């Protein structure tokens, strides 16, 4: 495995993805990780990430330089290279010219990192600092027009630094450079598969949990379903899942999920119907954050009351994914600013003093899907699009009433049907409808109408951090719009949302 030290670069997840695409396992650690902790992970190599700081600033993030005595290869990227230079006795200064964007890289020789990439290759740079003097034992291995030390190496110690970002797509031979580091330099084997991950994780869960009991909040989404499967394989009936129907699900969803989960997962599941409680508490509430808070609070109350009925539970399982963890451990002062109070299921039932089990916390969404498949999870569950905890409450913009929820449910059902029929369901990260709080004039038959507007949102994304609006065919959009206006009472206009994230978000609230 490879340890990646997180100096705060926005590309850290990409580094991890590139390494895992090579079927080598990796973990991102904060700079506060100790040398002992790294040693206990027994990595074949370390990658020091980029970051927004300058190494000569007083509060720049640093990892214990003892990592250079572990006897394993280290690759420093951008700020990571500057840290390496500084820690080993060289000097970094402010660059005369900031370098941002594409740069043609000339490698001195096609070896080590640069094996098989050709003498000149296009790389992508983003930095304002450069190296003034190299530490002892290092030599320059590549240059660009503006950067005399675009890459450096100490071959004997197997320490390497690159000023450019091999992890981004714009660096044409970036994948090859990372492969060279992993396989030629570190001697990693491409042996990480979902089957091996499942095997290791199941035995780890058994070890951690022993003969104690585990509770899991099941939402029917792929993350919690895969978490349930893994834990069930590890401890069988000692796992109890709780499914809370909050009345904010899609049409038929609660009933379908109930059937699917029950028949497919031979697991203890308790279904709690709390719909009326949620709807009552939300009545008259328009503010999105208040909606979320109310839903989060009731969910916790309902969940806790149900969990309290399970005697001797010691653990709470959660389907937390890697992007959540990375965001909250970022090198620069923890969680980024709260844009929306997501993941309201985060808190533990307080009275119960449960310990956490999070078997997916090192996986990305697409890896969770692969894992679900490897575990034999129903295809329908594996490929379910993400659905937010507060459900349709944040898609009925403005005031929530049972009637408005039903209008949205009917619209959404038509949309889902058409998206699936056109073969788009799996290609889209999410597709859904939003009910707007304004009305518009229309004409139906001979009469004037004054009815609701719905917006259709369909996006492509890898991890929801960024997203693009989907370029759905006009014909499909036309069919969706016709069917909605003809079939759903109370709607006379359909619009398509053509905004990307950022600057918009995926959900409207
Ligand atoms: P945004 O709207 O921030 O959403 O671009 C990113 C992803 O998160 C989902 N989402 C939520 N999930 N509770 C959740 O469990 C929430 O409160 C929540 N808000 C947004 C959203 O559907 C998208 O996949």
Structure report:
The chain is an alpha/beta fold and 509 residues long. The protein folds into three domains: 2-185, 3-Layer(aba) Sandwich (Rossmann fold), CATH 3.40.50; 198-382, Rossmann fold; 402-496, GMP Synthetase, Chain A, domain 3, CATH 3.30.300.10. Helices cover 32% and strands 24% of the residues. It is built from 14 helices and 18 strands. The strands form three sheets. The chain has a nine-stranded mixed β-sheet with strand order 2-1-3-4-9-8-7-5-6, with helices on both faces. The longest helix has 21 residues, at 288-308. The two termini are 40 Å apart. The structure holds xanthosine-5'-monophosphate. Xanthosine-5'-monophosphate binds at residues 292, 340, 342-344, 386, 388-390, 430, 464, 501, 505-507.
Using brief descriptors, characterize the structure shown.
single chain, 509 residues, alpha/beta, Rossmann fold, GMP Synthetase, Chain A, domain 3, five-stranded parallel β-sheet
């Amino acid at each position: 495995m490879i340890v990646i030290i997180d100096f705060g670069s926005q590309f850290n997840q990409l580094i991890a993805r590139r390494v895992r695409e090579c079927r080598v396992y990796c973990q991102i650690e904060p700079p506060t990780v100790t040398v002992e902790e790294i040693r206990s992970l027994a990595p074949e190599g370390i990658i020091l990430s980029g970051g927004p700081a300058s190494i000569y600033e007083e509060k720049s993030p640093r990892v214990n330089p003892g990592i250079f005595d572990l006897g394993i290869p280290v690759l420093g990227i951008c700020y990571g290279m500057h840290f390496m230079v500084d820690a080993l006795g060289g000097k970094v200064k402010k660059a005369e010219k900031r370098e941002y964007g594409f740069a043609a890289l000339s490698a001195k020789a096609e070896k080590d990192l640069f094996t098989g990439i050709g003498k000149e290759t296009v790389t992508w740079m983003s930095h304002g600092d450069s190296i003034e003097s190299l530490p002892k034992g290092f030599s320059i291995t590549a240059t660009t027009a503006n950067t005399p030390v675009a890459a450096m190496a100490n071959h004997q110690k197997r320490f390497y630094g690159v000023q450019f970002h091999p992890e981004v797509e714009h660096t044409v031979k970036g994948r090859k450079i990372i492969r060279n580091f992993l396989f030629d330099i570190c001697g990693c084997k491409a042996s990480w598969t979902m089957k091996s991950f499942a095997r290791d994780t199941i035995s780890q869960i058994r070890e951690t949990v022993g003969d104690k009991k585990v509770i899991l909040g099941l939402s029917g989404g792929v993350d919690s379903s895969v978490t349930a499967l893994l834990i069930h394989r590890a401890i069988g009936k000692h796992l109890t899942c709780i499914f809370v129907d909050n009345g904010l699900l899609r049409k038929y969803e609660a009933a379908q999920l109930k059937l699917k989960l029950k028949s497919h997962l031979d697991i203890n599941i308790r279904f709690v119907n709390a719909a009326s409680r949620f709807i009552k508490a939300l009545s008259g509430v328009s503010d999105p954050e208040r909606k979320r808070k109310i839903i989060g609070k009731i969910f916790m109350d309902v969940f806790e009351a149900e969990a309290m009925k399970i005697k001797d539970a010691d653990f709470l399982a959660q389907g937390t994914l890697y992007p959540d963890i990375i965001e909250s451990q970022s090198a620069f002062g923890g969680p980024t600013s709260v844009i929306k109070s997501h993941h309201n299921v985060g808190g533990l039932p307080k009275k119960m003093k449960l310990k956490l089990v999070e078997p997916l916390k090192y996986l990305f969404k697409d890896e969770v899907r692969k894992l679900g498949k490897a575990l034999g999870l129903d295809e329908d569950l594996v490929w379910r699009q993400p659905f937010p905890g507060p459900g349709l409450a944040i898609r009925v913009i403005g005031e929530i009433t049972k009637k408005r929820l039903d209008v949205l449910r009917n619209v959404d059902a038509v949309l889902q049907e058409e998206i699936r029929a056109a073969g788009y369901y799996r290609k889209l990260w999410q597709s859904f409808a939003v009910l707007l709080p304004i009305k518009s004039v229309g004409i139906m038959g001979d009469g004037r109408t004054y009815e609701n507007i719905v917006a259709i949102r369909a996006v492509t994304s890898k991890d929801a951090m960024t997203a693009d609006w989907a370029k759905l065919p006009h014909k499909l959009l036309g069919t969706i719009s016709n069917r909605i206006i003809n079939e759903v009472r109370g709607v006379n206009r359909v619009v398509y949302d053509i905004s990307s994230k950022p600057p918009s978000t995926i959900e409207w609230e």
